[in-house]
Structure formats: C-alpha cells, structure tokens
C-alpha cells in the first residue's frame, strides 16, 4: 500500500493569501486499494416506484434523458398515452381493437420525472445504436416490427418536448431482426447481426431504397445449438477496425468490409454457453490511449440444457455459471483466462464504471436461464470486477437490492456516475400479482462506492469547458483543455512537485443500448493527459490538456461522457460530441 500526500489549500478571508495545509492521508493508489470508511459496497435508492412501463431496453441520450421501452403486444401497461390517444393496430396480438397505454417512456434524470412516448409497432427483443448526431436508432422487434427502424431524437427541452417522439419506418431492414445485436461502426452506420433464424448481418442506414443486401454469417449457424444459445451475440469493435463476435461459447474476428473471418478464438473454458437464453454478458475492457491491445471479459451464463430443464411440470433450475473468461483479442495466439465470480449469475449486465478501474456485474439470477418463468433465485447483490488488480483479488460483492431484476431487466450508466436500474418482466403479460416475481415497473439507482460522501474531498469537478455538462464538440486527435477542481488534490508521494496532480486520469465513455444482459456499443477510452498544471493562486484548481482519440475506429463518431478521475473517484461527466472535422 502506498501513502499519498494530500495538499489542501484553504481560502483565507484575504483572497490573495492562501494557507497551505499538509495532510497525510492514505489514498487508493495500489492493487488492493483501501476500503473507504463508509459506503463500501455502494448504495441503492428507489427513484420511482412505477414508471408504468417495464424497462426491457434502455438508452441514455446526451440530453440526460433515458429512452425506455418494452414490447407493445403485452396488454395494457400502467402508463396512459398522452391526450387520450389510443393505438389501433390490427396486427397487434393482444389488444387489436385499441390500446390506450404507452409501451415506451422518457426518463429525465435531473428532474426524476418521466413521460409516455408512442411506439406503435412491436419492439420486442430489439436492438439499437445512437447515430453520430445523437438520435437513437432502434431496429427490429417482432411481428409487425420484425424489420422496422425507429428513431427517437434527444429532445431540446424547449417546451416542444411533448411533440418530440418516436418515428417509425416500416420494413426498413432487409431481414427480420428479433434478438439481434447492433454495433456502431466508424462510419456511423449500425452493424446489425443475427436474430432468431437469421444467420446473417446487414447495415443501417441503407445505401438506398434498393439496398436489400444481407451477408450470410455461417459462424452463427455453427454456434446454434438445440436451445439456440446463439442469440443476442456479443459484438465489440476491435482497435484494428474488425468486429469481435462472440456466440454461444466462442468467438471470431470479422472483417466486415470484406466479409472475412480474420481470426478464430478458442472455445471459452469448458464450452458452456454464454448467449441468450444462457445469457451471460460481455465488455470490451477500458482502452489505453493509442492502444496496442484490447481485452474482452465475458462473465456468467448457464450450462447447456438449463433453459429446457426449467420447462415442463417438474422444472428444475440449474445453478448458473460462476466463471468469467478474459482474452486479449488483439493477440495472434489468443487464450482465455478463466476467473471465478463470488456467486453464479445468469442474465447479469456488465457495465463499465467511469473510473475505468471497475466493471459492475449487476441484475439477473443465480439459477435457470433467460425466458418466461425460467429463473427462481434472483441475484440481488452486484459484484464489482477490478481488471487491474491481481488475479484472485478482482471481485468484490456489493450491497444488495431487494428488487428481483430477472428477465427483461436492464441498466445504464448515468452522467453522474450512478447506474439506472429497471425492468424485470419474466412473464408473457404484465402480471403484477399471483406470480412469484411480479412484473416490475420501478426504477432504482445503484450508486457505486465512489459516490459515497466520504469521497467528496477527492471528487473532481469539471469547471470548463462545460460546468453544466452540456455538450461540447471535439475533433479526432484534437486537444481539449479541461479545467477542474478537487477539494483536496492528491499527488503521488514519489511523483511531481507539490501542486501537480499524480493519479488523475480522464476517461471517455460511450453510453450503451442495454437489453437482454448486453450493453451494446459500450466503450471506455482513457485519454492521454498531456499536461496538467495547477492554476496559480488556486491550489485546488487544475488545467489539464487531453488528446482525443485519433480515429473513428477507436471511437466511432457521436456523443460520449468525459470524466476526470482522481484515483478511482470520477467527477460528474460532461458530454462531448466527437466528429470528423467539417
Ligand atoms: C398501476 O397503476 C394503478 C393506478 O394508478 C396503481 O394503483 C397500481 O399500483 C399500479 N401498479 C403497478 C404495478 O405499478
Ligand atoms: C430443448 O427443447 C427443444 C424443444 O422441446 C428441443 O428441440 C431441444 O432439443 C432441447 N434442447 C436440449 C439441449 O435439450
Ligand atoms: C399473466 O397474465 C395473463 C393474462 O393477463 C395470463 O393469461 C397468464 O397466464 C399470466 N401468466 C402467469 C405466468 O401467471
Ligand atoms: C486554465 O484554463 C483557463 C480556462 O480554460 C484559462 O483561462 C487559463 O488561462 C488557464 N490557466 C493556466 C495557468 O493555464
């Protein structure tokens, strides 16, 4: 354990004079770290007991609102459409003569308020990306929504909000996409992969009205087993521009431009399935500045046969997998390294925390599989994984919630560092009673330990370019000046002169489209901090200069949250839109 010196400058009555107080504190600057005095394990808060819609899919947009939606053919939700509107859709399975309830909602984080949105064709088990201009582009679904594309803009907050809603484009895709995965590409298009009985990929937006091209992907056929554990495949954009695609129990690296498999990865561990319905989860671990390597971590899942064994009169609920596999996807001879979680988990979500030092594994169950009535033991306690700690010292169980977050639950990172958690609808309809795990319409926040008040002295605050967090535009490879303050500024004992920050990093995080235990498009990059200087006369205020990623392969164009991180304590983020110079 390393001791760090804290230099704290307090303002005296005379603004020109400052009293420097030296404190010796222990800071987390080593493997193992320290447990803060209070708040270890994080905290849960109930934000809304009901938003009326179950959060099967969630996406945070750069207006700090979260677009939430369920499926539409599920009977009446608990949220009415505005202005007495009703949806009459003859292809609707449950209420073809009219449904006056909403199946999507917009959650305003700052106001802790929500409003109904209108989505009229079925979004069940669909996927999405956020376009470079910040519009949510959501694709696929079921029935009348199989091949639809829908957009939802980040509304301006200027009073026109009420008319700001979903737009739907019927049959915009070339193939049915139900349980497909989307990944944003460096050119801003979505790569859309798989789905039930779809062993192919396509791109959206289309080149033109006559573009109905679909590219076959035999790997999805090869990884289809009798339970179809190849759905919602995990897709990550590698730093070489190829796509890492994990399905069932193994992965390939796809050059999507030439439709060539350029690398084949070994089977993960014993070959247990990790994709829907044996849903595990997967993240691309945080990328260093100008990265030369990239790693993927896949955690949890369910043994083959778990889904089937829950069915029938005497259904049994098999314990979920406790293992994770970690692999350097950039290696010429890649190998999985197996690690063991503190507890089994299926349908867990993996979310990169903005400090770049931790991955939250949250939601899901300890047994069964994804599907209707297919899990019996909720996993109430999240786990944090610290990729840079030594093996054997990476997992830490967190504070438990009391709410079961089973099938059709989801989670997204918010700009303030909390995780927004919602959903759970493990039945065929909105069943609020007479079932073991009623459909859940609540929203909770999980505040990781770094948000505990005991860390407030160490928490950076970004003052410039955007004290309010409002979006700033940046170009690839550009430098961005960041001014931030820290109540107590930490420097390493052996590093730098007094007043210089030591353990400060800057991260940039792409908000995810989360559904079915996979946070699509999630990406965290450490930015190169080229210099940081204390602003004269204000010892706790610092100027830093950071370099944006050089290419759209490293960071596809669009909106990201940028955080200043002191040790492992992140600031509130600001939004930046990265784009090619006009
Ligand atoms: C649904 O709404 C009704 C009426 O507003 C309310 O009484 C009920 O508790 C709600 N149910 C759920 C599960 O939120
Ligand atoms: C699961 O059940 C389906 C449908 O009954 C069957 O076709 C399949 O072979 C079963 N798979 C396994 C792994 O038991
Ligand atoms: C859920 O409710 C529907 C009708 O609202 C009913 O038909 C169905 O059997 C229920 N499912 C369960 C698992 O209770
Ligand atoms: C720090 O940044 C602010 C605003 O970004 C700028 O006005 C100021 O000159 C900078 N100070 C130093 C010492 O670099």
Automatic annotation (TrEMBL):
Looking at the record, the residues that make up the Galactose oxidase-like Early set domain are 467-578
Q: Give the UniProt keywords, A-Z.
A: Signal
Q: Which SUPFAM superfamilies match?
A: E set domains, Galactose oxidase, central domain
Secretion signal span: 1-31
Residue span(s) of domain Glyoxal oxidase N-terminal: 56-450
A single Pfam family it belongs to is GO-like_E_set
Coiled coil location? none
Q: Which InterPro entries match?
A: Gal_Oxase/kelch_b-propeller, Gal_Oxidase_central_sf, Glyoxal_oxidase_N, GO-like_E_set, Ig-like_fold, Ig_E-set
Which PANTHER family does the record match to this protein?
OXIDASE, PUTATIVE, EXPRESSED-RELATED, SECRETED PROTEIN-RELATED
- Recorded protein name is Galactose oxidase
Q: Organism source for this protein?
A: Miscanthus lutarioriparius
């Amino acid at each position: 354990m390393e001791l760090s010196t804290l230099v704290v400058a307090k303002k005296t009555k005379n603004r020109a004079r400052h009293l420097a107080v030296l404190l010796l504190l222990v800071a987390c600057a080593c493997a193992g770290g320290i447990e803060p005095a209070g708040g270890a394990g994080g905290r849960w808060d109930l934000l809304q007991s009901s938003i009326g819609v179950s959060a099967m899919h969630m996406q945070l947009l750069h207006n700090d609102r979260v677009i939430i939606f369920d499926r539409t053919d599920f009977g009446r939700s608990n949220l009415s459409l505005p202005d007495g509107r009703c949806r009459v859709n003859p292809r609707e399975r449950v209420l073809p003569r009219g449904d006056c309830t909403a199946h999507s909602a917009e959650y305003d984080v700052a106001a802790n308020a929500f409003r109904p949105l209108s989505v009229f064709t079925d979004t069940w088990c669909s996927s999405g990306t956020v376009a470079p201009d910040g519009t949510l582009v959501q694709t696929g679904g079921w029935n009348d929504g199989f091949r639809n594309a829908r957009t939802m803009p980040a509304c301006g907050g200027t009073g026109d909000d009420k008319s700001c809603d979903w737009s739907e484009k019927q049959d915009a895709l070339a193939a049915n996409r139900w349980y497909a995965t989307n990944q944003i590409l460096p050119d801003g298009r979505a790569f859309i992969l798989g789905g039930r009985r779809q062993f192919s990929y396509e791109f959206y937006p289309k080149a033109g009205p006559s573009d109905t091209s679909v590219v076959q992907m035999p790997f999805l056929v090869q990884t289809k087993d009798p339970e179809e554990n190849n759905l919602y495949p995990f897709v990550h954009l590698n730093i070489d521009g190829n796509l890492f695609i994990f399905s069932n129990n193994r992965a390939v690296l796809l050059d999507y431009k030439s439709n060539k498999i350029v690398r084949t990865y070994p089977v993960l561990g014993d070959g247990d399935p990790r994709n829907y319905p044996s849903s595990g989860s997967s993240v691309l671990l945080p990328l260093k500045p100008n990265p030369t390597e990239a790693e993927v971590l896949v955690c949890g899942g369910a043994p083959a046969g778990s889904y089937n064994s829950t069915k029938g009169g005497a259904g049994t609920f098999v314990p979920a997998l406790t293992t994770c596999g970690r692999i350097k996807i950039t290696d010429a001879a890649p190998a999985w390294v197996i690690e063991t979680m503190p507890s089994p988990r299926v349908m867990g979500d993996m979310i990169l925390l903005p400090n770049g030092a931790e991955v939250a594994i949250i939601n899901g169950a300890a047994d069964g599989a994804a599907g209707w009535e297919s899990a019996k033991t909720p996993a109430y306690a999240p786990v944090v994984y610290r990729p840079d700690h030594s093996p054997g010292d990476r997992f830490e169980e967190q504070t438990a919630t009391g709410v079961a977050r089973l099938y059709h639950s989801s989670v997204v990172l918010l700009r303030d560092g909390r995780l927004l958690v919602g959903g759970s609808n493990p039945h065929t309809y909105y069943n609020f009673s007479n079932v073991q795990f009623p459909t859940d319409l609540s929203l909770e926040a999980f505040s990781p330990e770094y948000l505990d008040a005991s860390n407030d002295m160490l928490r950076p605050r970004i003052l410039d370019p955007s004290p309010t967090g409002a979006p700033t535009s940046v170009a690839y490879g550009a430098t961005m000046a960041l001014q931030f303050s820290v109540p107590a500024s930490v420097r390493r004992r052996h590093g730098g002169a007094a007043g210089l920050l030591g353990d400060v990093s800057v991260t940039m995080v792409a908000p995810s489209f989360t559904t079915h235990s996979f946070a699509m498009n999630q990406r965290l990059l450490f930015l190169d901090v080229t210099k940081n200087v204390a602003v004269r006369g204000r010892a706790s205020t610092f100027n830093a200069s950071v370099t944006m990623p050089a290419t759209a392969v490293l960071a596809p164009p669009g909106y990201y949250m940028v955080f200043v991180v002191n040790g492992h304590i992140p600031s509130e983020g600001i939004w930046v839109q990265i784009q090619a110079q006009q």
